[in-house]
Design goal:
44% of the residues lie in helices and 11% in strands. It has 322 residues and is of the alpha+beta class. The protein has 2 domains: 50-198, BirA Bifunctional Protein, domain 2 (2-Layer Sandwich), CATH 3.30.930.30; 210-305, no CATH class. A hairpin with a 6-residue loop joins strand 5 and strand 6. The chain is globular and about 60 Å long.
């Protein structure tokens, strides 16, 4: 037996001998909750002004040449054949679209559950200037994905909501694949809103809690069940309700503090115009804190929901439910 084999044997043996059978198992503690990002006074002013919210969402992921080609055909043909590629270059036509898919195909994954292309939609409320919004989308795509990822951007005008579709090849020029998380989507939404405001489209991308929209998200399974007509009710966990109430009060107080600080800053302003502008923003913050939306009530309880649910089939024994 070599020294290496002997060492390996000792490790295995020690692992077996040192495993006590009566040691109490400790429940794994969840990691501490990540602190919410700081919100600037300028952003709180935009929240107080109740600017409409920008929307950036991932519609789907595509794998393989055929799936990517179908999605590209939908996105680009619906835009009249015009689209923008990396480097903010405008191209058009079916030939350009087919060449794009062939070029991207060289880096597609061979994994069964892999992902090759991400389909993203960016939109603004009805009435927003479409041309300026598309210019903002071009600037956002070039700054966010252009340096390392190939993309195709197209504008659709088939709905009252101005919106653009973005296809991003996940495999970058550096060989690494993009794997977006929730934090990335929040960053993209803020970047898109900043680009839109730079073009004169006044939209924002603020957290729901900072706007007083304190409600729990609904899973896709629950949404599908409700769509089929089923009554699905959830009783929120008590820790979640307490945390929601604490965050709600914290955000309301933050607007009050920001209003006081802005009012003090206005007193030391160099010009009358600047003083008036800062005081007006302080008044907006104070008014929003006073009118901060009331905390939403928890979801209906199980007892209340059971009365609206259809009766379950009974077994042969009277009074017993299946």
């Amino acid at each position: 037996m070599t020294d290496e084999d002997d060492l390996s044997w000792r490790k295995v043996g020690r692992a077996k001998l040192d495993r006590p059978s009566n040691r109490p198992t400790l429940r794994k503690q969840p990691p501490p909750a990540a602190a919410s990002r700081p919100i600037s006074v300028a952003e709180r002013v935009r929240i107080a002004q109740r600017l409409p919210q920008a929307v950036v969402k991932v519609l789907s992921y595509r794998r393989g040449r055929d799936a990517v080609a179908r999605t590209a055909a939908y996105v680009i043909k619906k835009a009249g054949g015009d689209f923008v590629v990396e480097g903010d270059i405008a191209v058009a036509g079916d030939a350009a679209r087919a060449a794009l898919v062939r070029d991207w195909e060289r880096d597609f994954t061979t994994r069964k559950n892999g992902r090759d292309v991400m389909h993203v939609e960016m939109s603004a409320p009805p009435g927003s200037d479409r041309d300026r919004l598309f210019a903002a989308a071009r600037a956002f795509a070039a700054a966010t994905f252009g340096p390392n990822h190939q993309y195709a951007l197209a504008e659709h005008r088939d709905t009252e909501h101005p919106h653009c579709h973005l296809l991003v090849k996940l495999r970058g020029h550096d060989g690494r694949a993009l794997d977006p998380r929730k934090r990335d989507l929040e960053t993209w939404r803020r970047s898109f809103a900043e680009a839109a405001r730079a073009e004169g489209v006044m939209i924002d991308a603020s957290p729901r809690a900072a706007r007083g929209v304190a409600r729990r998200g609904v899973s896709r399974a629950v949404l599908e069940a409700r769509r089929r007509g089923k009554v699905v009710a959830r009783q929120p966990h008590e820790p979640y309700v307490r945390a929601q109430a604490a965050r709600h009060a914290e955000e309301r107080d933050a607007f009050r503090i920001a209003a006081l600080r802005l009012a003090r800053t206005a007193e030391g302003a160099a010009s009358v115009e600047e003083r008036a502008r800062l005081k007006a923003m302080a008044v907006e913050l104070a008014r929003f804190a006073h009118e901060f939306p009331a905390l939403a009530q928890p979801a209906i309880s199980r007892d209340a929901s059971s009365a609206t649910q259809p009766a379950r089939p009974h077994t042969r024994d009277t009074g017993l439910e299946r």
